[in-house]
Design goal:
Blueprint: E1 4-9, E2 12-17, H1 18-34, H2 41-58, E3 66-67, H3 69-79, H4 82-87, H5 115-123, H6 127-139, H7 143-154, H8 161-168, H9 174-193
Length: 194
Amino acid sequence: MQIAVNSSLGGRAFHLEEEVYSRLRQYLARLEKEFAAETGAAEIIYDIESRMADLFTMRLNTYKQVITVQDFEQVIAILGSPEAINGGTAVSNKFCFSSSHRFYRDYDHRLLGGVCSGIAAYFSWSPLVFRILFAALVFAGGFGLALYLVLWIVLPEAKTTAQKLEMRGEPVTIANIKEIVKNEYETVKQRMKL
């Protein structure tokens, strides 16, 4: 019989086996140590915790409500270790799957609602192509405006770092989360100088 511990991760509550709780605390301490000198360390760690919470949630169902050691090891295999990321070595693992490619509105690169930039990020094209396409559809009978408004309502906005990576089809790993957060800080710095 295993002892289960209640814990909060990424703003969500989980039941963890006692060993998982101990290993998770060690992992998070290593994250804090590795990213202590990084710009935006708190945001990087929060985004990693949120992604871990997403991966833990995917492993739960009606009949399984406790995160096991095997679940934890699979999640760490997907995310990678902090030491390997800062050391510059790539992490290969048998559990890593290609990130789900999802449609989101890209609010960071929007002109109006972020629909065209979100679709462009999904297909790895220039947003200008989709903006021209929607404009052509507007002038060809107004269908483009209705389609744009429907997509604006239906598509969720990519708010978290994990969602931004999914929008581009990139795997949600520690290295990618770190890179996105650093890029966002650099963008904010550049905007503040102007």
